[in-house]
Amino acid sequence: MRLTGSFLVFAVTLLARGFSSGACFADDRTGTLDLYFIDVEGGAANLIVTPEGESLLIDSGYPDNQGRDLNRILDVARRIAGLSRIDHALVSHWHLDHYGNHAALAAEIGIGTFWDRGIPDDLQEDPRFHERIAAYRGATQNKSRALRAGEALPLKTGKVPLSCRVLAASRETVTGEGSLNPFASEHEARPEDATDNAASLVLLFSLGEFRYLTCGDLTWNTEAKLVTPRNPAGKVDLFMVTHHGLPVSNNPALVLAVDPVTAIMCNGPKKGGAESTLKTLRRVESLEQWYQLHRNVDLELGLQAPVDQIANQGTTAECHGNWILARVAADGKSYTIQIGNDGLPARYQTRSDH
């Protein structure tokens, strides 16, 4: 693992971009691919705005907590990204911290097309699933579109090709693609996970040479199924650490194989950010830096990302809900990552050895 000195990276970025902390992100966009990681304190909410101005929200946090997660998503969508509606909204899997605000967002800002893996008849780990899914069914008018492994999300593309491919869905994965995984032997099988986590959608985004992989809450054995014996994801530039950084996910057979240059962990102060996951990240050969939405308040700070790469430092009561933005250049050849509106952007080069 190689770590880039933050001060040097920030200084070079400032000179290169003439960055001003008061800049309006929506107005500053020049055909970039923007990936916002919104703090929903252990759930997930990943807002993506494409070079063509098309928007996609992956997951939407919890529906309670006095509207905390809903309001944070709306703030980033409207004030920071400059959106008046969300074109696509996707549910990675059927746990409430991932689809809880889709219906409210449809009412507040409007959603064009809903995507998911298909709605199951029952969810054994959630006895209130039929009650909770009713709002989603109503918002979609029972017309959400189910995705399958191997399909592509129909996003608009420009001169530099943009794509979003589904690598796994409903426990099925693409097969027979990619190079043999040299880390396949890292997998040690665990008891099968019967929860919906194992059925998560896995998405691989590409803009030119840039690659971003997000696996929802995919768990250990299905992670291995995806990347062994062959790895269809290849090596990536940016990886959203799976399942908030929990140890039931982040199988080294997958993490080491995709070999990210950067990673972002959507954890909470007491959810995710596990020591074993952080140790796996430290083994990644190409990793220059990882970022966390939260400091794990129960774990020694020295095991976690550097302090200036952690968006929120305190407990839930002290949290300001800082977000993280990864912005990919229009040509897909470089990208920056920064924390919040006033954060200093660190610049990274897109890899060419995918």
Oligomer: single chain
Arrangement of strands in the largest sheet:
6-5-4-3-2-1-17-18-19
What can be said about the biggest beta sheet? 9 strands, mixed
Helix content: 10-25%
Mean pLDDT figure: 92
Number of helices: 9
Tell me what the CATH architecture is.
4-Layer Sandwich
Shape estimate = globular
Briefly note the CATH topology name. Metallo-beta-lactamase, Chain A
- DSSP, total strands: 19
Instruction: Outline the low-pLDDT stretches.
Output: 3-23
Query: Which range does the strand content fall in?
Result: 15-25%
Helical/strand content category: alpha/beta
Distance between the termini: 18 Å
Keywords, separated by commas or semicolons:
354 residues; alpha/beta; Metallo-beta-lactamase, Chain A; nine-stranded mixed β-sheet; 9 helices; 19 strands; 21% helix; 23% strand; globular; disordered N terminus
